[in-house]
């Protein structure tokens, strides 16, 4: 729109200079020819046609000098473009017909050449600025989407950490009750049984029997309380199996050899990594098979997720999901490595030691 206004201003200025120089019945002819050529410039996108037409107009100026009054108007098309050299040729007719124009006309047309150049430069700068603004806006929109996704993942990670801490604390309390109070009550019942065998008096037997009944009831209450406390602890085998069964992108082979009585934070981390890995397979891979190994070694817990995809677009240092995996495992003092040879493989290992008081206990109340 700005280009059309600039062309109109230049044409009116050229017409004003032309009317001061010549007034005749044929003065409309140069105006019509210049208008037609300018219209062709606008609607013909091929620069070769525009250049050829402009050179033809310049050549016509050697034979019909009134056409020269509209050269500033037509030269506007070529300013600030790869074809700007064409405007230089517009000077040739003025050199050829120098004696035919008064100094005032030459100065006026020279000023119009300069004004046309400034107007075209202003339009070019505006278009470039608008293009850069659109690029910046697209970048800002992309950054906003990435930020929103990171914020969502951060909220989920914080919620998972809170849940992990809560379940870990409940598991710790349950183990302490089991290891301390439960064992003491069990030993007390055994000692009470020995006393009842050695005691001969009927009244003592009755009192001891009542005491045993009380202790047995206390033991049952403790057992029920411990089971109630750990009922929300993640069952890794069941949850992993459900996740695998719900995955329909390609077949998944699950091999699991790990005790269920493992620290809750490890089970939550392993389950989250399995879900994220399968989600990445469905989004980014052309895999036809996925293998999941969850194993307990003498000194560590191990998780391996391997797919046979050949279209590898992910990298160990890229992707919010992979970074979340590594963050989860680093909080457990473990390691998470990604390999892209022969498919895509995630290798996770978490040591059993150096876990700030975490101990494995496979016994049950």
Walk me through this protein's architecture.
It is a single chain. The chain is α+β, with helices and mostly antiparallel strands. The protein has 11 helices and 5 strands; from the N terminus they run H-H-H-H-H-H-H-H-H-E-H-E-E-H-E-E. A 5-stranded mixed β-sheet has the order 1-2-3-5-4. Strand 4 and strand 5 (344-351) form a beta hairpin. The longest helix has 96 residues, at 103-198. The protein is rod-shaped. 22% of the residues are buried.
Please provide a brief summary of the model.
The chain is built from eleven helices and five strands.
Describe the main β-sheet briefly: 5 strands, mixed
Give the integer mean of the pLDDT values: 79
Number of strand elements: 5
Strand % is 5-15%
Could you tell me the radius of gyration in angstroms?
Answer: 43 Å
- Poorly predicted runs: 354-365
Give the number of helices.
Answer: 11
Instruction: Kindly name the structural category.
Output: alpha+beta
Order of helices and strands: HHHHHHHHHEHEEHEE
Placed side by side, the strands forming the largest sheet appear as 1-2-3-5-4
Q: Work out the helicity level.
A: 55-70%
Shape: rod-shaped
The CA-CA distance between the termini, in Å, is 83 Å
């Amino acid at each position: 729109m700005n280009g059309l206004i600039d062309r109109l201003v230049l044409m009116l200025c050229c017409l004003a200079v032309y009317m001061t120089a010549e007034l005749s019945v044929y003065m409309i002819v140069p105006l019509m020819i210049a208008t037609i050529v300018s219209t062709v410039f606008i609607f013909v996108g091929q620069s070769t046609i525009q250049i050829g037409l402009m050179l033809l107009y310049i050549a016509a100026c050697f034979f019909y000098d009134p056409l020269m009054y509209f050269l500033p108007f037509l030269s506007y098309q070529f300013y600030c473009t790869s074809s700007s050299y064409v405007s230089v040729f517009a000077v040739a007719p003025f050199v050829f017909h120098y004696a035919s124009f008064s100094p005032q006309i030459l100065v006026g047309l020279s000023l119009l050449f300069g004004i046309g150049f400034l107007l075209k430069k202003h339009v070019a700068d505006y278009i470039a600025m608008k293009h850069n603004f659109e690029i910046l806006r697209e970048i800002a929109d992309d950054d906003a989407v990435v930020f929103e996704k990171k914020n969502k993942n951060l909220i989920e990670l914080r919620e998972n950490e809170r849940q992990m801490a809560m379940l870990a604390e409940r598991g710790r309390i349950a183990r302490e009750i089991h290891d301390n109070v439960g064992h003491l009550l069990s030993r007390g019942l055994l000692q009470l049984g020995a006393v009842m065998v050695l005691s001969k008096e009927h009244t003592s037997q009755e009192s001891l029997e009542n005491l045993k009944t009380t202790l047995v009831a206390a033991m049952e209450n403790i057992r029920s309380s411990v089971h109630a406390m750990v009922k929300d602890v993640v069952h890794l085998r069941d949850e992993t199996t459900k996740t695998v069964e719900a995955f329909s992108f390609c077949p998944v082979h699950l091999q699991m050899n790990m005790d269920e009585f493992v620290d809750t934070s490890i089970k939550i981390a392993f389950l989250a990594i399995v879900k994220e890995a399968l989600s990445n397979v469905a989004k980014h891979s052309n895999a036809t098979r996925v293998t999941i190994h969850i194993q307990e070694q003498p000194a560590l817990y191990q998780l391996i997720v391997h797919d046979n995809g050949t279209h590898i677009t992910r990298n160990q240092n890229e992707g919010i999901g992979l970074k979340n995996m590594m963050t989860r495992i680093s909080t457990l003092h473990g390691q998470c490595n990604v390999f892209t040879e022969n498919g895509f493989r995630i290798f996770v290992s978490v040591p059993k030691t150096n876990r700030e008081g975490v101990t494995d206990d496979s016994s049950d109340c």
